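Dear colleagues,

As part of the handover before I leave the project, I'm documenting each prediction I ran so the next person doesn't have to rerun anything. This entry is a single chain, and its sequence is reproduced below.
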Amino acid sequence: MTINRKSFLLGGLAVPAAAFLAACGSDSTPASAPADVASNDGATATTQEITVEHAFGTTTIPAGASRFTAIAWGNHDVALALDVMPAGLSRQEWGVADGSGMLEWTKQKVDEQVAAGAAEPALFDDTDGYDFEAIAETAPDVILAAYSGLSQEEYDTLTKIAPTIAYPGVPWGTKWREMIRLDSQAMGMSEQGEDLVTDLEQQIADAVGQHPQIAGKSAAFFYLSESDTSTIGFYTTADPRTAFMTDLGMTIPASVQTVSDADPEIFYTDVSSENADQVADVDVMIMYGEESDLAALQADPLVGTIPAIKNGAVAFVGNGTPLSASTNPGPLSIPWGIKDYVALIAAAADKADAARA
């Protein structure tokens, strides 16, 4: 089943507002790509033919490719982090407060490049499916979609516009490192992509180093609604939000890992609140919502029995805010939000420690 942009954002889940769905898959390093040369406007032109493997086969990018359009979630941030302005990118709404169609970190980089003389990128809406005509109008040499939920039919249509880079395994199943590596490879910038990964890993380590209390704590990303507590939802290790816990030096609780291993292609699941004890092994819960939501969850006769909720060891990241959007890690969202994000998790970890004292 195709997961379109609307279901990616809304998901039909019982959450306080529009919590988006995405996935995160295996992490591997593609083969190195040829060297690249920068043009005057910051774009790159590949010097040799590039071959990229992904879920739909192999894409060959001809030498001289220099115009890149990005679709879905986060792929445009890879180009921008490498100082390349995409010709077009998917419009974002969730987490955007100013109506610009771009998350704060994306807009900042776009504005910087426009100030330096680059052309404004086209924005197209893929909430209800990809706007192929709008994508074609950007005249791309390459379409970046390493992190996406493309169907075979959508991929086939895009390839009629330009060589397209799809996800390596399953829809929405690309970890942030792999997204950077695949997209940068397609741009002829593999070496720069590796440098970016290394820099981001250091930024994460620096942020985590300020809060040693989170090390080794079990954690996962959950979703709950104080207005409907009949189910408890969580994202599996196939999702970048839960998978990111290991980047923070935390562990995945056995309850979440077991579900993740049973079906590696699902990225979220629900548990009946009557079986709340199934997630009793979670030290810290990361969740959309506000701190003010905690009292209602603690008062619930079933959900309130979960140790993390009972202890208040919940890191609420907001809902539809830039910070809540940044919890889906990417090359620009990590630097933008990592310090605040880790601080919230550390505060929840303190409560878990206090309950054990």
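The chain has 13 helices and 14 strands. Residues 333-356 form the longest helix (24 residues).

All the best with the project,
I.
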